Amino acid sequence: MYSNANDVEAVAIYNKSSNEGTITNEKGEFFLEVAENDVVEISALQFEKQTVTITKDVIASKVLKIYLVEQVNQLNAVILKHGLSGNLAVDIENAVIPPNIEIDLGNMNAMEMYDEKGHNDFKVKKDLNSVMNNHELYNAVDFVKIANMLFKPKKRSYIDDTPKFVKPKLLLDVYSRKFISDTFSIPMEHVDEFIAFVENNGLSQELLNDEQEFKRIDFLVRQSELFLKQQHVKK
Predict the structure, then answer these.
(1) Mapping DSSP to helix (H, G, I), strand (E, B) and coil, where does residue 12 land?
(2) What is the residue range of 184's domain?
(3) Which residue of 13, 120, 156, 174 is 20 to 30 Å from 186, comparing CA positions?
(4) Is residue 160 part of a domain?
(5) How far is residue 62's CA from residue 16's CA, in Å, rounded to a whole number?
(6) pLDDT value of position 17
(7) Looking at the predicted structure, is the pLDDT value of residue 167 above 70?
(8) Is pLDDT of 163 > 60?
C-alpha cells in the first residue's frame, strides 16, 4: 500500500469472492490468498474505498501494489442553541440541522445593463432641440455641444479571443524524482530514463489530471516493471 498523506497500517483488505480478509502491517504490507478474477476490496476510514480484480499478472508476480487516495469526510452543519442541559442525548435531540438553501439567480445575462441603454438618446436630443431656435444658443447654453458630449458612443470592451498557449503538464509537475524512485523502485540515476520511457508508452495529459491519480499510479506500476525488465536495471 502506498499513500502520500496517511498511515497505511490497519487498512482492511477483503476478498469478496472467497469471503476472507486481512489488514496491512505498519509498512502497508499484507498477505491474502486470491485466485484469478477474484474481487478484492480495500477500505479504511481515512481512504477512499477501492475495488481491484485479480489478474494473471498479479497471480504470477504474487504482488499487488495499491495507491490509496485520502478521503475527506465532510460533516453536516448543526445549530446548537444556548443554555445546553449537559445531557448529551437531550442536547443532540434538540440540535437543529439548517436546511439547504438553493438560490436561483436565473439568467445573469438578463441583468446586464449598458450605459447607453439607461436612457433614450434620441428622445433627449429631440427635447433639447425643441427649446432651441435653429441650433442657436439658448440662455447662453449650447445644448447641441452638451448633448454631443453626453451621448458619445460608448467604447465597446474588446474581448481577446486569441488562443492562449497552455504548457503541457509533465510527470515531474505531479511527482518528485525521489517519490518516483521510492514508489516505483527506480534507481535515482535512471529516473529521467524512466520518465522518457513512460511518456513514449502512453502517459497522456489526461492521466496527469488530479482525478486520474489511481489510474496513473496503476499505469506507472506496470510501466516500471516493464522498464526494469527491458533495461536490466538493478533495484
Answers:
(1) strand
(2) 169-235
(3) 13
(4) no
(5) 18
(6) 92
(7) yes
(8) yes
Q: Report whether pLDDT(15) > 90.
A: yes
CA distance 56 to 51: 17
How far apart, in whole angstroms, are the C-alpha atoms of residue 14 and residue 110? 55
Residue 37 CA to residue 52 CA, distance in Å, equals 9
Asked whether residue 128 is assigned to any structural domain, the reply reads: yes
For residue 171, give the nearest of 160, 162, 180 by alpha carbon: 180
**Is residue 113's pLDDT more than 50?**
no
Which of 43, 53, 59 lies closest to 1 in space, CA to CA?
43
Q: How many separate helices (H) and strands (E) can be counted in the chain? A: 8, 4
Q: How many residues does the chain have?
A: 235
pLDDT in tens, 184-220: 889 999 999 999 999 888 888 888 888 888 899 999 9
Helical H segments across the chain, by residue range: 56-61, 88-94, 121-130, 143-150, 171-174, 177-184, 191-199, 213-231
CATH of the domain at 64: 2.60.40
Half-sphere exposure of 207 (CA within 13 A, CB side): 15
Q: Which residues have C-beta within 8 Å of that of residue 92, sequence separation ≥ 6?
A: none
Cβ atoms of 12 and 21 within 8 Å: the answer is: yes
